Amino acid sequence: MPTVEQNRQHWNQDYEWTQQGEEWSLVWGGSEAQWFGAILPRIHAFVPTGTILEIAPGFGRWTTYLKKYCESLTVVDLAEECIKACQQRFAADSHISYYVNDGKSLAMIQDKSIDFVFSFDSLVHAEAEVIEAYVNQLAMKLSQNGIGFIHHSNLGKYQQAFSLIDKIPSEFRELVINRNFLAPTHWRAGSMTAELFADYCDQSGLHCIGQELVNWGTDELLIDCFSVFTPKNSIWARPNNVIENRDFMKEAVLINQLSLLYTLKSFQSSRGTNSFESHPVGPLPRVSPQAMKSVSPGIWSRSIRWIFDHCRVSQIVHGA
To answer: Which domains does the chain have, with CATH numbers?
Structure first.
């Protein structure tokens, strides 16, 4: 169970960040492919917008894209080293604000000021009490029609099964995991579940409107969840749709294949450079909400639609 202090120690001091977090996107073919192939298709209805809050940005793997979809972006992280890295990386972007927090607090954010809150591949390491604290505060920080997309752990769903690991002698523990009796947990928070997230929303005056349970890094176990939420009286409010997607990693493989054709990185490789900024077409411009109103989904959105048409998913619709 990673505590707040363990997270701070790990991401602030122990982890070397030699690849700026890019190593966690390799399965998708890199962060560019993962953003346009796996993330943007899931959030494109909510951006661009006025103000975005990103919780736990790390070294800015998603910040580099989010900053183009808003007028004002705030990033909050418990690791001072991560915030310093983001400040250096995005020094030319005057519309970004940076804060180091205690791993739970959003006191620095003005109430009713956030149109979209985002966190991906970070809060999976946050236990239930941390997620609850953030959700309670986001109920105050979101604007009337604000919306959130939070990637968090669902490992608690399998807590009883994984608790057996502690009772297995250490010399046999890896054997049990490697033979798929149990799967690696990827340092997920063992107390957090999708159901708890929906409950936290309901208790704080928010409404969970969509949850996708995914088998991140496993064959079958749905150890992660993407939760979408909004104030109960917002224009986004609807019954909660819960989808179990056990083909999430197959989706990653397809996106990786597409990345060889369609990403900037695929062209840069042939030119002997790995820098987005030095690509002949230059960095993508910042996109205003007005400019994006008439933009239709591109190749990545179409590919993700095809994936969900063909993958094995089950949908459960809960009452409001």
So the answer is: 4-15+25-317 (3.40.50.150)
